[in-house]
Amino acid sequence: MRPRRDEALPVPDAVHAALSTEVRPVLAISGGLDSMVLLHAAASFDLDTLRPIVATFDHGTGPAAAHAVGHVSAAAGAAGLECVTGKARATGLSEEEWRRSRWRFLREVAASTGGRIVTAHTLDDQVETIFMRILREAGPRGLAGLYAHSEVVRPFVNVSRAQLEAYAGEQGVKFVTDPTNDSRRYLRNRVRHDLLPSIAKVRPRFARDLIDISRRSAEWRRSMDSILEAVHSSEDPDGSLRIARSSLAGFDAESLRVLWPALAARAHVVMDRRGTHRAAEFTMRGLTGRSIQLSGMFEIVMHRDHLLLRRWGNHPRSIA
């Protein structure tokens, strides 16, 4: 997968451009090829004023995971960079639970240091992400993928994995290989090793088509965000989101089905299709004091002047 010529940057330039900010970088390093290239390229610049932090996470899956953390720690030390390590609190987690645990750790490091997370996601990762979201029937918001506006910095999002491999070979970057990367147990590996290569044989432009879709979706998300500025909402200390009913008055069901996923994202909630449709209908026809339950242990409660999106937990509920 090759990036568009007007957006492709050599690996060092991509990293330098991303880190040339006033915010301290928190480098998310797993020990694999992509992230070790990020570490190597970041260490090649004079970043003393920013004092980058290397953050690495042990998923607790066995010796290979522990070895990767040790490799990252040693490489960070050799580069003169501070390294913070984390470890999963439980074993036997699913791939999604691993991801959540890792991101929780990265956000904690960023919050405690006033830093900003920097990852090594590549253009190939973006293609795989969009393809998997299409399989899961994601809407335009989800199809923006890694191009969506985020506080996370991704220097390589327009750089191919092949470019990183070439850089690693030229610079002698040492990395570890996760033994699960070839396991067809995980959807991303099946997409990476089987589905996308097979499709590319009969439709060579398929990956580029996916990138074009994601670019248009990202633009759509930006347009939606400007519309949402007129919707009055506030976040409670417990993470619940209050949305003024008056701000949603006048929208029809179709518009509300577009607005609700974007509103939910403010509370870090991902709405599925069923939940989106239910939220739209409830907004138009729900009664004060009633509620609807969403997937992921969330609910929407109708109050006199606002709607409350919250994790339902132990709150008393009445289901609409």
Q: What this model shows, in words?
A:
It is a single chain. The chain has helices at residues 11-19, 33-43, 63-78, 95-113, 123-135, 140-143, 161-171, 187-202, 206-228, 245-248, 253-265, 273-285, and strands spanning 24-28, 53-58, 82-87, 115-118, 233-235, 241-244, 291-294, 298-302, 306-311. The strands form 2 sheets. A 5-stranded antiparallel β-sheet has the order 5-6-9-8-7. Strands 3-2-1-4 form a 4-stranded parallel β-sheet, with helices on both faces. The chain has 320 residues and is an alpha/beta fold. Residues 1-8 and 316-320 have low confidence and may be disordered.
Mean pLDDT: 88
Q: Note the main sheet.
A: 5 strands, antiparallel
Name of the CATH class of the largest domain: Alpha Beta
Tally of DSSP β-strands: 9
Q: Termini separation (Å)?
A: 48 Å
Tally of helical runs: 12
Sequence of secondary-structure elements: HEHEHEHEHHHHHEEHHHEEE
List keywords for this structure.
320 residues, alpha/beta, Rossmann fold, Uridine Diphospho-n-acetylenolpyruvylglucosamine Reductase, domain 3, 2 domains, 5-stranded antiparallel sheet, 4-stranded parallel sheet, 12 helices, 48% helix
Give a quick precis of the structure:
Helix 2 (33-43) crosses helix 7 and helix 5 (123-135) crosses helix 8 (187-202).
Reconstruct the topology from this structure.
Layout: H1 11-19, E1 24-28, H2 33-43, E2 53-58, H3 63-78, E3 82-87, H4 95-113, E4 115-118, H5 123-135, H6 140-143, H7 161-171, H8 187-202, H9 206-228, E5 233-235, E6 241-244, H10 245-248, H11 253-265, H12 273-285, E7 291-294, E8 298-302, E9 306-311
